[in-house]
Design brief:
Two copies of one chain form a homodimer. With 289 residues, the first copy, chain A, is α/β, with parallel strands linked by helices. Chain A has two domains: 119 residues, ATPase, nucleotide binding domain (Nucleotidyltransferase, domain 5), CATH 3.30.420.40; 150 residues, ATPase, nucleotide binding domain (Nucleotidyltransferase, domain 5). Chain A is 36% helix and 20% strand. Chain A has nine helices and ten strands. In chain A, strand 7 and strand 8 form a beta hairpin. The longest helix of chain A is centred in the last third of the chain and has 25 residues. The interface between A and B is large, with 51 and 51 residues.
Protein backbone atom coordinates (compact mmCIF):
# COMPACT_ATOMS: atom_id res chain seq x y z
CA UNK A 1 0.00 0.00 0.00
CA UNK A 2 1.26 3.46 -0.89
CA UNK A 3 2.15 5.87 1.89
CA UNK A 4 2.96 9.52 2.39
CA UNK A 5 5.01 11.28 5.02
CA UNK A 6 2.62 14.06 6.02
CA UNK A 7 3.84 17.27 7.68
CA UNK A 8 1.41 19.86 9.02
CA UNK A 9 3.01 23.31 9.30
CA UNK A 10 1.16 25.66 11.63
CA UNK A 11 2.15 28.99 13.13
CA UNK A 12 2.95 27.47 16.53
CA UNK A 13 3.21 23.68 15.98
CA UNK A 14 4.52 21.33 13.34
CA UNK A 15 3.11 17.78 13.24
CA UNK A 16 4.26 14.82 11.21
CA UNK A 17 3.12 11.25 10.62
CA UNK A 18 2.74 8.50 8.02
CA UNK A 19 -0.59 8.26 6.15
CA UNK A 20 -1.65 5.39 3.86
CA UNK A 21 -3.51 5.76 0.58
CA UNK A 22 -6.66 4.78 2.51
CA UNK A 23 -6.29 7.83 4.71
CA UNK A 24 -5.14 5.88 7.74
CA UNK A 25 -2.46 7.15 10.08
CA UNK A 26 0.11 4.45 10.79
CA UNK A 27 2.36 4.93 13.79
CA UNK A 28 2.94 7.95 15.95
CA UNK A 29 2.19 11.57 15.32
CA UNK A 30 5.24 13.68 16.12
CA UNK A 31 4.74 17.16 17.50
CA UNK A 32 7.29 19.98 17.33
CA UNK A 33 7.29 23.68 18.23
CA UNK A 34 7.43 25.77 15.07
CA UNK A 35 10.94 27.27 15.09
CA UNK A 36 11.27 31.01 14.76
CA UNK A 37 13.60 31.17 11.79
CA UNK A 38 13.57 29.97 8.22
CA UNK A 39 16.89 28.14 8.73
CA UNK A 40 15.65 26.24 11.78
CA UNK A 41 12.37 25.26 10.10
CA UNK A 42 14.26 23.94 7.11
CA UNK A 43 16.51 21.96 9.44
CA UNK A 44 13.47 20.46 11.19
CA UNK A 45 11.84 19.52 7.86
CA UNK A 46 15.07 17.85 6.72
CA UNK A 47 15.41 15.96 9.98
CA UNK A 48 11.84 14.60 9.75
CA UNK A 49 12.18 13.76 6.07
CA UNK A 50 15.57 12.04 6.48
CA UNK A 51 14.10 9.69 9.04
CA UNK A 52 11.06 8.63 6.99
CA UNK A 53 11.56 9.25 3.28
CA UNK A 54 12.70 5.71 2.54
CA UNK A 55 9.42 4.32 3.92
CA UNK A 56 7.12 6.49 1.80
CA UNK A 57 6.21 7.33 -1.79
CA UNK A 58 5.75 11.04 -1.40
CA UNK A 59 6.20 13.90 1.09
CA UNK A 60 2.94 15.81 1.72
CA UNK A 61 2.88 19.24 3.36
CA UNK A 62 -0.30 20.80 4.76
CA UNK A 63 0.63 24.37 5.48
CA UNK A 64 -0.81 27.72 6.44
CA UNK A 65 -0.73 30.16 3.52
CA UNK A 66 -2.18 29.94 0.01
CA UNK A 67 -0.47 27.27 -2.09
CA UNK A 68 -0.03 27.53 -5.85
CA UNK A 69 -1.75 25.34 -8.46
CA UNK A 70 1.40 23.32 -9.09
CA UNK A 71 1.50 22.38 -5.39
CA UNK A 72 5.13 23.26 -4.94
CA UNK A 73 5.16 26.72 -3.41
CA UNK A 74 3.34 29.35 -1.41
CA UNK A 75 1.66 32.33 -3.07
CA UNK A 76 2.62 35.76 -1.78
CA UNK A 77 2.93 36.63 1.85
CA UNK A 78 0.38 35.62 4.43
CA UNK A 79 2.28 36.88 7.43
CA UNK A 80 3.44 33.48 8.60
CA UNK A 81 6.71 31.65 8.36
CA UNK A 82 5.73 29.31 5.55
CA UNK A 83 5.26 32.25 3.21
CA UNK A 84 9.00 32.78 3.21
CA UNK A 85 9.46 29.45 1.52
CA UNK A 86 10.31 29.78 -2.16
CA UNK A 87 9.12 27.02 -4.51
CA UNK A 88 12.56 25.47 -4.90
CA UNK A 89 12.97 24.83 -1.17
CA UNK A 90 10.06 22.39 -0.99
CA UNK A 91 11.26 20.47 -4.04
CA UNK A 92 14.79 20.18 -2.72
CA UNK A 93 13.80 18.82 0.69
CA UNK A 94 13.58 15.20 -0.42
CA UNK A 95 14.62 12.77 -3.11
CA UNK A 96 10.96 11.71 -3.14
CA UNK A 97 8.28 13.92 -4.75
CA UNK A 98 7.19 16.78 -2.50
CA UNK A 99 3.56 17.98 -2.62
CA UNK A 100 2.24 21.06 -0.83
CA UNK A 101 -1.36 22.09 -0.12
CA UNK A 102 -3.02 24.66 2.09
CA UNK A 103 -4.04 23.10 5.42
CA UNK A 104 -7.73 24.06 5.21
CA UNK A 105 -7.93 22.80 1.62
CA UNK A 106 -6.26 19.55 2.68
CA UNK A 107 -8.66 19.11 5.61
CA UNK A 108 -11.66 19.72 3.32
CA UNK A 109 -10.31 17.03 1.00
CA UNK A 110 -9.97 14.57 3.89
CA UNK A 111 -13.63 15.18 4.82
CA UNK A 112 -14.59 14.61 1.18
CA UNK A 113 -12.70 11.32 0.91
CA UNK A 114 -13.13 9.75 4.36
CA UNK A 115 -15.21 12.16 6.46
CA UNK A 116 -18.56 13.93 6.74
CA UNK A 117 -18.86 15.08 3.14
CA UNK A 118 -17.94 11.69 1.65
CA UNK A 119 -19.97 10.94 -1.45
CA UNK A 120 -21.02 14.57 -1.90
CA UNK A 121 -19.66 16.26 -5.04
CA UNK A 122 -20.17 19.83 -3.75
CA UNK A 123 -19.03 20.77 -0.25
CA UNK A 124 -17.50 23.71 1.55
CA UNK A 125 -15.57 23.32 4.76
CA UNK A 126 -15.21 26.11 7.28
CA UNK A 127 -12.53 25.61 9.93
CA UNK A 128 -13.46 27.73 12.92
CA UNK A 129 -10.37 28.20 15.09
CA UNK A 130 -8.30 31.24 16.04
CA UNK A 131 -9.06 32.31 12.46
CA UNK A 132 -11.30 30.78 9.81
CA UNK A 133 -10.00 28.44 7.13
CA UNK A 134 -11.94 27.52 4.01
CA UNK A 135 -11.81 24.62 1.59
CA UNK A 136 -14.09 24.26 -1.43
CA UNK A 137 -14.84 20.96 -3.19
CA UNK A 138 -16.72 21.28 -6.50
CA UNK A 139 -17.58 18.36 -8.78
CA UNK A 140 -15.49 16.09 -6.54
CA UNK A 141 -12.37 18.22 -7.03
CA UNK A 142 -10.58 20.68 -4.78
CA UNK A 143 -11.37 24.15 -6.11
CA UNK A 144 -8.29 26.42 -6.15
CA UNK A 145 -9.08 29.27 -8.55
CA UNK A 146 -6.74 30.78 -11.11
CA UNK A 147 -3.53 30.67 -9.05
CA UNK A 148 -4.52 28.49 -6.10
CA UNK A 149 -5.56 31.08 -3.52
CA UNK A 150 -9.33 30.42 -3.59
CA UNK A 151 -11.36 29.54 -0.53
CA UNK A 152 -10.37 32.52 1.61
CA UNK A 153 -13.37 33.23 3.81
CA UNK A 154 -12.81 36.96 3.75
CA UNK A 155 -16.21 38.15 2.60
CA UNK A 156 -17.81 41.06 4.42
CA UNK A 157 -20.30 40.84 7.29
CA UNK A 158 -20.86 44.59 7.33
CA UNK A 159 -19.68 47.53 5.26
CA UNK A 160 -19.12 50.29 7.81
CA UNK A 161 -15.52 49.46 8.75
CA UNK A 162 -16.44 48.31 12.24
CA UNK A 163 -13.99 45.53 13.01
CA UNK A 164 -10.47 45.22 11.58
CA UNK A 165 -9.61 41.83 10.09
CA UNK A 166 -6.24 40.09 10.25
CA UNK A 167 -6.09 40.38 6.44
CA UNK A 168 -5.79 44.16 6.67
CA UNK A 169 -9.31 44.81 5.40
CA UNK A 170 -12.47 45.20 7.52
CA UNK A 171 -15.34 43.09 8.78
CA UNK A 172 -14.54 39.80 7.05
CA UNK A 173 -16.38 36.60 8.01
CA UNK A 174 -13.15 35.46 9.69
CA UNK A 175 -13.25 38.49 12.03
CA UNK A 176 -16.69 37.42 13.32
CA UNK A 177 -16.96 33.63 12.99
CA UNK A 178 -13.54 32.74 14.46
CA UNK A 179 -12.61 32.29 18.10
CA UNK A 180 -11.00 35.71 17.93
CA UNK A 181 -14.30 36.97 16.54
CA UNK A 182 -16.20 35.44 19.47
CA UNK A 183 -13.89 37.27 21.89
CA UNK A 184 -14.45 40.57 20.05
CA UNK A 185 -18.21 40.03 20.04
CA UNK A 186 -18.03 39.24 23.76
CA UNK A 187 -16.06 42.45 24.38
CA UNK A 188 -18.58 44.51 22.42
CA UNK A 189 -21.62 43.05 24.16
CA UNK A 190 -20.20 42.86 27.70
CA UNK A 191 -18.12 46.03 27.59
CA UNK A 192 -15.35 44.03 29.27
CA UNK A 193 -12.11 44.07 27.30
CA UNK A 194 -10.65 41.23 29.40
CA UNK A 195 -13.43 38.73 28.72
CA UNK A 196 -12.19 35.50 27.11
CA UNK A 197 -13.84 32.87 24.93
CA UNK A 198 -13.25 30.54 27.85
CA UNK A 199 -15.40 32.80 30.08
CA UNK A 200 -18.15 32.81 27.47
CA UNK A 201 -18.20 29.05 26.97
CA UNK A 202 -17.83 28.26 30.67
CA UNK A 203 -20.68 30.49 31.74
CA UNK A 204 -22.83 29.87 28.71
CA UNK A 205 -26.12 29.68 30.64
CA UNK A 206 -25.86 33.27 31.88
CA UNK A 207 -28.11 35.55 29.79
CA UNK A 208 -25.28 37.80 28.64
CA UNK A 209 -23.12 34.86 27.55
CA UNK A 210 -26.13 33.37 25.80
CA UNK A 211 -26.57 36.60 23.89
CA UNK A 212 -22.87 36.64 22.97
CA UNK A 213 -22.98 33.08 21.66
CA UNK A 214 -26.22 33.74 19.77
CA UNK A 215 -24.73 36.81 18.11
CA UNK A 216 -21.58 34.93 17.14
CA UNK A 217 -23.60 31.98 15.88
CA UNK A 218 -25.88 34.26 13.88
CA UNK A 219 -22.83 35.66 12.09
CA UNK A 220 -21.80 32.11 11.19
CA UNK A 221 -25.35 31.42 9.97
CA UNK A 222 -25.40 34.54 7.80
CA UNK A 223 -22.08 33.58 6.21
CA UNK A 224 -23.32 30.07 5.53
CA UNK A 225 -26.50 31.41 3.87
CA UNK A 226 -24.35 33.46 1.50
CA UNK A 227 -22.11 30.51 0.61
CA UNK A 228 -25.13 28.26 0.01
CA UNK A 229 -26.69 30.83 -2.33
CA UNK A 230 -23.44 31.28 -4.24
CA UNK A 231 -22.51 27.58 -4.55
CA UNK A 232 -25.74 25.50 -4.27
CA UNK A 233 -23.65 22.89 -2.41
CA UNK A 234 -24.56 19.47 -1.03
CA UNK A 235 -23.22 20.42 2.36
CA UNK A 236 -21.21 22.77 4.49
CA UNK A 237 -18.83 21.11 6.93
CA UNK A 238 -17.83 22.85 10.16
CA UNK A 239 -14.51 21.90 11.72
CA UNK A 240 -11.99 23.39 14.11
CA UNK A 241 -11.92 23.94 17.85
CA UNK A 242 -14.83 26.43 17.82
CA UNK A 243 -17.19 24.21 15.80
CA UNK A 244 -18.26 22.28 18.88
CA UNK A 245 -19.96 25.39 20.27
CA UNK A 246 -22.16 25.80 17.19
CA UNK A 247 -25.72 24.44 17.17
CA UNK A 248 -25.50 22.59 13.85
CA UNK A 249 -29.16 21.55 13.74
CA UNK A 250 -30.31 25.13 14.26
CA UNK A 251 -27.94 26.47 11.59
CA UNK A 252 -29.02 23.86 9.06
CA UNK A 253 -32.74 24.45 9.67
CA UNK A 254 -32.51 28.24 9.67
CA UNK A 255 -30.18 28.47 6.65
CA UNK A 256 -32.43 26.19 4.63
CA UNK A 257 -35.37 28.48 5.39
CA UNK A 258 -33.53 31.51 4.07
CA UNK A 259 -31.68 30.34 0.96
CA UNK A 260 -32.97 30.77 -2.60
CA UNK A 261 -31.02 27.76 -3.83
CA UNK A 262 -31.79 24.10 -3.04
CA UNK A 263 -31.72 22.26 0.33
CA UNK A 264 -28.28 21.47 1.74
CA UNK A 265 -26.81 19.86 4.85
CA UNK A 266 -24.69 21.38 7.61
CA UNK A 267 -22.47 18.78 9.28
CA UNK A 268 -19.58 18.55 11.71
CA UNK A 269 -16.22 17.35 10.45
CA UNK A 270 -15.43 13.73 11.29
CA UNK A 271 -11.98 13.08 9.85
CA UNK A 272 -10.33 14.06 13.13
CA UNK A 273 -7.66 16.44 14.37
CA UNK A 274 -5.16 15.33 11.78
CA UNK A 275 -7.43 15.82 8.76
CA UNK A 276 -4.96 18.35 7.31
CA UNK A 277 -2.21 15.73 7.17
CA UNK A 278 -4.60 13.05 5.93
CA UNK A 279 -5.97 15.27 3.16
CA UNK A 280 -2.53 16.45 2.06
CA UNK A 281 -1.34 12.82 1.99
CA UNK A 282 -4.37 11.69 -0.07
CA UNK A 283 -3.93 14.56 -2.53
CA UNK A 284 -0.18 13.94 -2.76
CA UNK A 285 -0.59 10.20 -3.36
CA UNK A 286 -3.30 10.69 -6.00
CA UNK A 287 -1.15 13.31 -7.75
CA UNK A 288 1.53 10.64 -8.27
CA UNK A 289 -0.70 8.23 -10.18
CA UNK B 1 -23.55 27.30 -39.97
CA UNK B 2 -25.64 26.10 -37.04
CA UNK B 3 -28.25 28.42 -35.57
CA UNK B 4 -30.50 28.68 -32.55
CA UNK B 5 -33.82 30.39 -32.04
CA UNK B 6 -33.15 32.30 -28.81
CA UNK B 7 -35.96 33.46 -26.53
CA UNK B 8 -35.29 35.70 -23.53
CA UNK B 9 -38.07 35.45 -20.94
CA UNK B 10 -38.16 38.37 -18.52
CA UNK B 11 -40.77 39.46 -16.02
CA UNK B 12 -42.03 42.26 -18.26
CA UNK B 13 -40.65 41.57 -21.77
CA UNK B 14 -39.98 38.55 -23.95
CA UNK B 15 -37.42 38.90 -26.74
CA UNK B 16 -36.60 36.49 -29.54
CA UNK B 17 -34.07 36.29 -32.36
CA UNK B 18 -31.84 33.93 -34.33
CA UNK B 19 -28.24 33.45 -33.12
CA UNK B 20 -25.47 31.66 -35.03
CA UNK B 21 -22.88 29.31 -33.52
CA UNK B 22 -20.46 32.27 -33.68
CA UNK B 23 -22.68 34.23 -31.34
CA UNK B 24 -23.95 36.58 -34.05
CA UNK B 25 -27.53 37.76 -34.17
CA UNK B 26 -28.98 37.37 -37.67
CA UNK B 27 -32.11 39.32 -38.49
CA UNK B 28 -34.47 41.21 -36.22
CA UNK B 29 -34.97 40.99 -32.51
CA UNK B 30 -38.69 40.65 -31.75
CA UNK B 31 -40.02 42.24 -28.58
CA UNK B 32 -43.22 41.18 -26.81
CA UNK B 33 -44.91 42.11 -23.55
CA UNK B 34 -44.76 39.20 -21.11
CA UNK B 35 -48.35 37.94 -20.92
CA UNK B 36 -49.93 37.61 -17.51
CA UNK B 37 -50.99 33.97 -17.67
CA UNK B 38 -49.31 30.65 -18.19
CA UNK B 39 -51.67 29.84 -21.13
CA UNK B 40 -50.91 33.09 -22.94
CA UNK B 41 -47.16 32.72 -22.47
CA UNK B 42 -47.28 29.20 -23.83
CA UNK B 43 -49.25 30.46 -26.83
CA UNK B 44 -46.65 33.20 -27.45
CA UNK B 45 -43.75 30.69 -27.21
CA UNK B 46 -45.51 28.36 -29.67
CA UNK B 47 -46.22 31.21 -32.08
CA UNK B 48 -42.55 32.31 -32.07
CA UNK B 49 -41.28 28.74 -32.36
CA UNK B 50 -43.70 27.80 -35.17
CA UNK B 51 -42.40 30.66 -37.28
CA UNK B 52 -38.70 29.88 -36.87
CA UNK B 53 -38.11 26.27 -35.85
CA UNK B 54 -37.49 25.05 -39.41
CA UNK B 55 -34.62 27.52 -39.80
CA UNK B 56 -32.74 26.48 -36.66
CA UNK B 57 -31.06 23.51 -34.98
CA UNK B 58 -32.20 24.18 -31.44
CA UNK B 59 -34.50 26.37 -29.36
CA UNK B 60 -32.63 28.24 -26.58
CA UNK B 61 -34.42 29.89 -23.67
CA UNK B 62 -32.74 32.44 -21.38
CA UNK B 63 -35.12 32.84 -18.50
CA UNK B 64 -35.48 34.37 -15.08
CA UNK B 65 -35.49 31.71 -12.37
CA UNK B 66 -32.97 29.00 -11.48
CA UNK B 67 -32.71 26.34 -14.18
CA UNK B 68 -31.93 22.68 -13.46
CA UNK B 69 -28.73 20.87 -14.47
CA UNK B 70 -30.47 19.02 -17.32
CA UNK B 71 -31.45 22.39 -18.83
CA UNK B 72 -35.07 21.47 -19.32
CA UNK B 73 -36.92 22.98 -16.39
CA UNK B 74 -37.00 25.57 -13.67
CA UNK B 75 -36.13 24.78 -10.07
CA UNK B 76 -38.64 25.74 -7.41
CA UNK B 77 -40.51 28.99 -7.35
CA UNK B 78 -38.82 32.33 -7.86
CA UNK B 79 -41.96 34.41 -7.86
CA UNK B 80 -42.05 34.94 -11.59
CA UNK B 81 -44.09 33.40 -14.35
CA UNK B 82 -41.39 31.11 -15.71
CA UNK B 83 -41.32 29.24 -12.42
CA UNK B 84 -44.75 27.83 -13.19
CA UNK B 85 -43.31 25.98 -16.15
CA UNK B 86 -42.90 22.28 -15.52
CA UNK B 87 -40.06 20.48 -17.28
CA UNK B 88 -42.31 18.78 -19.82
CA UNK B 89 -43.68 22.06 -21.17
CA UNK B 90 -40.32 23.26 -22.47
CA UNK B 91 -39.58 19.93 -24.15
CA UNK B 92 -42.98 19.80 -25.85
CA UNK B 93 -42.77 23.30 -27.33
CA UNK B 94 -40.86 22.24 -30.44
CA UNK B 95 -39.91 19.28 -32.59
CA UNK B 96 -36.34 20.61 -32.32
CA UNK B 97 -34.34 20.19 -29.09
CA UNK B 98 -35.23 22.75 -26.45
CA UNK B 99 -32.53 24.05 -24.07
CA UNK B 100 -33.14 26.29 -21.07
CA UNK B 101 -30.67 28.33 -19.02
CA UNK B 102 -30.94 31.08 -16.43
CA UNK B 103 -30.61 34.51 -18.09
CA UNK B 104 -27.71 35.73 -15.91
CA UNK B 105 -25.84 32.45 -16.41
CA UNK B 106 -26.42 32.70 -20.17
CA UNK B 107 -25.18 36.29 -20.25
CA UNK B 108 -22.05 35.33 -18.27
CA UNK B 109 -21.41 32.59 -20.84
CA UNK B 110 -21.75 35.07 -23.71
CA UNK B 111 -19.14 37.31 -22.07
CA UNK B 112 -16.87 34.29 -21.66
CA UNK B 113 -17.16 33.24 -25.32
CA UNK B 114 -17.36 36.55 -27.20
CA UNK B 115 -17.20 39.35 -24.60
CA UNK B 116 -15.09 40.92 -21.88
CA UNK B 117 -14.03 37.73 -20.11
CA UNK B 118 -13.04 35.91 -23.31
CA UNK B 119 -9.95 33.79 -22.80
CA UNK B 120 -10.26 33.85 -19.01
CA UNK B 121 -11.03 30.49 -17.37
CA UNK B 122 -12.36 31.99 -14.10
CA UNK B 123 -14.88 34.84 -14.21
CA UNK B 124 -17.92 36.01 -12.30
CA UNK B 125 -20.53 38.23 -13.87
CA UNK B 126 -22.73 40.52 -11.82
CA UNK B 127 -25.74 41.95 -13.64
CA UNK B 128 -26.75 45.14 -11.86
CA UNK B 129 -30.33 46.00 -12.85
CA UNK B 130 -33.57 46.18 -10.88
CA UNK B 131 -32.13 43.18 -9.03
CA UNK B 132 -28.71 41.53 -9.25
CA UNK B 133 -28.04 38.50 -11.42
CA UNK B 134 -24.99 36.31 -11.08
CA UNK B 135 -23.17 33.94 -13.41
CA UNK B 136 -20.06 31.98 -12.47
CA UNK B 137 -17.57 30.53 -14.97
CA UNK B 138 -14.94 28.19 -13.48
CA UNK B 139 -12.34 26.32 -15.50
CA UNK B 140 -14.05 27.53 -18.70
CA UNK B 141 -17.37 25.97 -17.70
CA UNK B 142 -20.60 27.45 -16.40
CA UNK B 143 -20.78 26.61 -12.69
CA UNK B 144 -24.27 25.51 -11.63
CA UNK B 145 -23.86 23.66 -8.31
CA UNK B 146 -25.57 20.45 -7.28
CA UNK B 147 -29.00 21.14 -8.84
CA UNK B 148 -28.34 24.19 -11.00
CA UNK B 149 -29.28 27.04 -8.68
CA UNK B 150 -25.76 28.37 -7.99
CA UNK B 151 -24.70 31.95 -8.64
CA UNK B 152 -27.40 33.64 -6.59
CA UNK B 153 -25.83 36.84 -5.27
CA UNK B 154 -27.68 36.68 -1.99
CA UNK B 155 -24.82 36.94 0.45
CA UNK B 156 -25.14 39.31 3.38
CA UNK B 157 -23.88 42.91 3.54
CA UNK B 158 -24.83 43.26 7.19
CA UNK B 159 -26.26 41.01 9.86
CA UNK B 160 -28.64 43.25 11.81
CA UNK B 161 -31.75 42.73 9.65
CA UNK B 162 -31.68 46.27 8.33
CA UNK B 163 -33.02 45.96 4.79
CA UNK B 164 -35.46 43.30 3.54
CA UNK B 165 -34.41 41.48 0.36
CA UNK B 166 -36.74 40.31 -2.43
CA UNK B 167 -35.68 36.76 -1.55
CA UNK B 168 -37.44 36.97 1.80
CA UNK B 169 -34.22 37.14 3.81
CA UNK B 170 -32.38 40.29 4.90
CA UNK B 171 -29.51 42.48 3.69
CA UNK B 172 -28.39 40.47 0.67
CA UNK B 173 -25.92 41.94 -1.83
CA UNK B 174 -28.84 42.25 -4.26
CA UNK B 175 -30.68 44.55 -1.82
CA UNK B 176 -27.76 47.00 -1.85
CA UNK B 177 -25.97 46.69 -5.22
CA UNK B 178 -29.09 46.74 -7.45
CA UNK B 179 -30.96 49.75 -8.81
CA UNK B 180 -33.58 49.09 -6.16
CA UNK B 181 -30.74 49.08 -3.63
CA UNK B 182 -29.50 52.45 -4.90
CA UNK B 183 -33.00 53.89 -4.40
CA UNK B 184 -33.13 52.51 -0.84
CA UNK B 185 -29.69 53.90 -0.06
CA UNK B 186 -30.81 57.26 -1.48
CA UNK B 187 -33.93 57.19 0.72
CA UNK B 188 -31.86 56.37 3.81
CA UNK B 189 -29.27 59.08 3.18
CA UNK B 190 -31.63 61.83 1.96
CA UNK B 191 -34.59 61.03 4.19
CA UNK B 192 -36.78 61.49 1.12
CA UNK B 193 -38.92 58.43 0.39
CA UNK B 194 -39.82 59.76 -3.08
CA UNK B 195 -36.25 60.08 -4.35
CA UNK B 196 -35.58 58.02 -7.51
CA UNK B 197 -32.43 56.53 -8.99
CA UNK B 198 -33.06 58.96 -11.85
CA UNK B 199 -32.78 61.91 -9.40
CA UNK B 200 -29.54 60.52 -8.03
CA UNK B 201 -27.91 59.96 -11.40
CA UNK B 202 -29.18 63.22 -12.90
CA UNK B 203 -27.92 65.36 -10.02
CA UNK B 204 -24.82 63.33 -9.38
CA UNK B 205 -22.56 66.36 -8.78
CA UNK B 206 -24.55 67.53 -5.75
CA UNK B 207 -22.74 66.52 -2.51
CA UNK B 208 -25.66 64.46 -1.19
CA UNK B 209 -26.05 62.54 -4.45
CA UNK B 210 -22.29 62.01 -4.52
CA UNK B 211 -22.49 60.50 -1.06
CA UNK B 212 -25.38 58.26 -2.11
CA UNK B 213 -23.51 56.97 -5.16
CA UNK B 214 -20.32 56.47 -3.14
CA UNK B 215 -22.20 54.47 -0.51
CA UNK B 216 -23.89 52.31 -3.16
CA UNK B 217 -20.61 51.81 -4.99
CA UNK B 218 -18.82 50.91 -1.78
CA UNK B 219 -21.38 48.13 -1.21
CA UNK B 220 -20.62 46.81 -4.69
CA UNK B 221 -16.89 47.00 -3.92
CA UNK B 222 -17.30 45.10 -0.64
CA UNK B 223 -19.26 42.35 -2.40
CA UNK B 224 -16.63 42.08 -5.12
CA UNK B 225 -13.83 41.79 -2.52
CA UNK B 226 -15.66 38.83 -0.96
CA UNK B 227 -16.19 37.08 -4.29
CA UNK B 228 -12.53 37.59 -5.25
CA UNK B 229 -11.36 36.10 -1.93
CA UNK B 230 -13.68 33.11 -2.31
CA UNK B 231 -12.99 32.36 -5.99
CA UNK B 232 -9.51 33.77 -6.86
CA UNK B 233 -10.96 34.63 -10.32
CA UNK B 234 -9.35 36.14 -13.42
CA UNK B 235 -12.02 38.81 -13.56
CA UNK B 236 -15.36 40.10 -12.41
CA UNK B 237 -17.61 41.41 -15.18
CA UNK B 238 -20.20 44.08 -14.45
CA UNK B 239 -23.24 44.24 -16.71
CA UNK B 240 -26.79 45.55 -16.58
CA UNK B 241 -28.32 49.01 -16.72
CA UNK B 242 -26.75 50.13 -13.43
CA UNK B 243 -23.19 49.09 -14.35
CA UNK B 244 -22.56 52.29 -16.29
CA UNK B 245 -22.74 54.30 -13.07
CA UNK B 246 -19.97 52.31 -11.43
CA UNK B 247 -16.38 53.57 -11.49
CA UNK B 248 -14.75 50.37 -12.71
CA UNK B 249 -11.15 51.61 -12.41
CA UNK B 250 -11.69 52.63 -8.79
CA UNK B 251 -13.35 49.32 -7.90
CA UNK B 252 -10.57 47.31 -9.53
CA UNK B 253 -7.79 49.29 -7.83
CA UNK B 254 -9.42 49.32 -4.40
CA UNK B 255 -10.49 45.65 -4.45
CA UNK B 256 -7.02 44.55 -5.47
CA UNK B 257 -5.60 46.45 -2.50
CA UNK B 258 -7.88 44.62 -0.07
CA UNK B 259 -7.98 41.00 -1.26
CA UNK B 260 -5.83 38.21 0.17
CA UNK B 261 -5.96 36.24 -3.09
CA UNK B 262 -4.17 37.15 -6.33
CA UNK B 263 -4.70 40.19 -8.63
CA UNK B 264 -7.84 40.18 -10.78
CA UNK B 265 -9.55 42.46 -13.28
CA UNK B 266 -12.89 44.24 -13.04
CA UNK B 267 -14.38 44.88 -16.49
CA UNK B 268 -17.61 46.03 -18.08
CA UNK B 269 -19.63 43.58 -20.13
CA UNK B 270 -19.22 43.94 -23.89
CA UNK B 271 -21.48 41.29 -25.43
CA UNK B 272 -24.37 43.74 -25.62
CA UNK B 273 -28.00 43.95 -24.53
CA UNK B 274 -28.86 40.57 -25.98
CA UNK B 275 -26.08 38.66 -24.25
CA UNK B 276 -28.66 36.46 -22.50
CA UNK B 277 -29.99 35.20 -25.82
CA UNK B 278 -26.50 34.90 -27.29
CA UNK B 279 -25.22 32.91 -24.29
CA UNK B 280 -28.26 30.62 -24.20
CA UNK B 281 -27.89 29.99 -27.94
CA UNK B 282 -24.17 29.20 -27.63
CA UNK B 283 -24.79 26.85 -24.71
CA UNK B 284 -27.71 25.20 -26.52
CA UNK B 285 -25.74 24.69 -29.74
CA UNK B 286 -22.71 23.29 -27.93
CA UNK B 287 -24.95 20.93 -25.94
CA UNK B 288 -26.08 19.35 -29.24
CA UNK B 289 -22.60 18.39 -30.41
Amino acid sequence: MKKALAIDVGGTKIYSTIVTENGEITGDVEKHQTPKTFIEIQKLFKDIINRYENEVDVIAFATCGAVNNTNDGILGSTGNIASEYPTMVFKSLSKKPVFVENDANAAAWAEHVIGSSKGMPYSIMLTLGTGVGGGIILENKLYKGKYGAAGEMHFKMRTDKHRKCTCGSWDCFEAYASGTGLKKTAEEISGDSKITTYDVINQKDRPIMKKIIETWQNDILEGIIGLANIFDPDCIVLSGSMAEFVDIEYIEAEANKQIVTTPFKVVKASAGNYSGMIGAALLALSSQT
